[in-house]
Design brief:
about 300 residues; mainly alpha
């Protein structure tokens, strides 16, 4: 894949992810966390079907020997997005964003333990520097929210989100390389849509929420389904096919900065020098991680 295309993917993914927290916040104004997840997967699955029918994406069925692997990835996809919906009901966006940024570190550690990638000094230092930058960016807001009361259940859910992301990142690379990123991602989304349709009869509140939800909530649902699910999932899969797991996961360090910029541009939030300093630290960490030799990572995967 051309470096220019990879650069485009690397820029677009954090932009979509940075808006995901905002879209979830908007979506839960009209839908419960479970109903929001059902709707976004139903819409995403239906939106992906024409790509298979028109053969723009070549369908390659998952082999029986890989079915368990696919089920694990489907579970990680469903649980991660459903958990985020519940978390965003009560937890501050800044706190959720900071905790989710532990996913790259979990990804790197899991990849090393499973023998997929070497945990090089550049990856270690880069992850640490980038995570320190995230802490700087979000630190001020975390201090103001320090006395907020959260249930232990919410805290547990909050820390399970990056675990689900790390599982999807680590376990997904082999499948994306074997079946193709768009093909495999599409099958996951359609499977998620089918499961969501089976859950619909057990959610009598869904119909009433569909009729009463404000237009802003529907904008959030459509943004999550089409951008966060279809577009971002394909781009994420493409990136995993051509980059190392740690490099792809490191793109998440840009998410808080994207959220800050969106807040400044759309909500008029003030950007401080501390925020800018954190952004410099994030970028420095990303440079270190992405300069790690990709060949070393891929040898472990292909061997």
């Amino acid at each position: 894949m051309a470096n220019r295309n990879l650069c485009f993917v690397s820029m677009l993914l954090p932009l979509i992810w940075g808006g995901t927290f905002l879209m979830v916040k908007i979506g839960i104004q009209g839908f419960s966390p479970i109903n929001l997840a059902i709707l976004r997967f139903l819409i995403a699955g239906v939106a992906f079907l024409p790509l298979f029918v028109s053969r723009r994406v070549v369908y390659r069925p998952i082999q029986k020997c890989d079915m368990l692997h696919a089920v694990v990835l489907l579970g990680a996809l469903l649980s991660g997005q459903l958990l985020l919906n519940f978390v965003m009901e009560s937890a501050p966006t800044s706190l959720a964003g900071l905790v989710v940024q532990t996913a790259p570190l979990l990804t790197a550690i899991a990849s090393v333990l499973l023998g997929f990638e070497p945990f090089t000094p550049k990856v270690a230092v880069g992850s640490g520097v980038a995570f320190f930058g995230v802490a700087i960016v979000l630190g001020g807001d975390l201090v103001t929210k320090a006395n907020a009361q959260f249930s232990s259940f919410t805290v547990v859910l909050l820390f399970m989100v990056p675990v689900a992301i790390a599982v999807y990142t680590v376990a997904g690379k082999v499948m994306f390389m074997k079946y193709g990123p768009a093909n495999f991602s599409g099958q996951l989304l359609i499977a998620a849509a089918l499961l969501s349709s089976l859950a619909t009869p057990f959610r009598p509140s869904l119909l009433s929420e569909i009729h009463s939800a404000p237009i802003q909530a529907w904008i959030g649902v459509l943004g999550l389904a089409l951008l966060a699910n279809v577009v971002a999932l394909i781009l994420w899969s493409v990136a995993l096919k051509h980059m190392s797991r740690s490099q792809v996961a490191s793109l998440m360090h840009l998410v808080p900065m994207v959220a800050v910029v969106l807040g400044w541009a759309l909500l008029g939030e003030h950007v401080t020098l501390v925020t800018l300093a954190g952004g410099v630290s994030i970028m420095a960490g990303l440079v270190l991680i992405n300069r790690a030799p990709a060949e070393l990572h891929e040898k472990r995967v292909l061997s």
